[in-house]
Design goal:
Elements lengths: L4 H12 L7 E8 L3 E2 L4 E9 L5 E10 L4 E7 L7 E8 L3 E12 L4 E10 L3 E14 L6 E7 L1 E5 L24 E3 L10 E3 L9 E7 L6 E4 L3 E2 L9 E7 L4 E6 L11 H25 L1
Length: 289
Amino acid sequence: MKKYLVPLCSIVAALLLPVSSVFAASVFVEPKNTEMRPGDSFEASVFIATENESINAIEGTVLFSEDLLMLEDVRDGASIVNFWIERPREEAGKIAFSGIIPGGYAGEKGLIFSAIFRAKKAGRGIIDSRALRVLLNDGEGTEAHSVASGAQIIVSEHAPSAEAVRIEDDTQAPEEFTATVTRNPSIFEGKYFLVFATQDKGSGIDHYEVCERGETSCVIAESPYVLAHQALRTKIIVRAIDKKGNKRVVVIPPHLRVARYKSMLIFGILAIAVIVFFVRKRNKRGKSI
């Protein structure tokens, strides 16, 4: 995880989470099919096993043979990750991801995300996980030892047809959520910003929209989002939209009293926002070099 994630995630851990001990976490890739024909689509899921210890943050990269496989979709609706710092997405034959699990996760097969691939031509390739970092749910942001394993894929004209990819039948809106207006002198030059997050257990969240001056003046946004209108004189609308177009809407009335960090929940929300801010800032700086 980027250098800011370990110290900052410990803020969340210290505020919200109990104590555990060091252990080895295992991240593994499990395809529905390892053999298929050219043109077949198949699903490969990325899981984590925690040896019954508790974790609260994970980061990594899934690599795949870009000459052999084409990524068609990423599904994270059933993920154990509640807050994505970097939602799984493809870039040059890899899928990078990082996220936080407030309250922690312990189990033998926790879904991080699933990827839908299409086989492009005959050959042999891999889907592998790399560059893993896992943080313990121990109140200190301790990094756990982690191991990764992948899967070999064989594409052949003589292979049996791959199992059909399940079609997402999602008519439900994303889960209810709260959007919080807050500010802190350490980030965004002390400006008011908006923090929000939710999940969609069906097709997964596609994007968020923030509207500051009516429903016609909306922009696609990510949390934390710096408000364009700092006077807070108009209502703010936040929409969570899943991959099937279902929406969940939150409306913040004008002149709503801004959160002053008087509860552990607000501290937790602010800590998550700080983590996201610094990690994204670090990512952008790295890409510009």
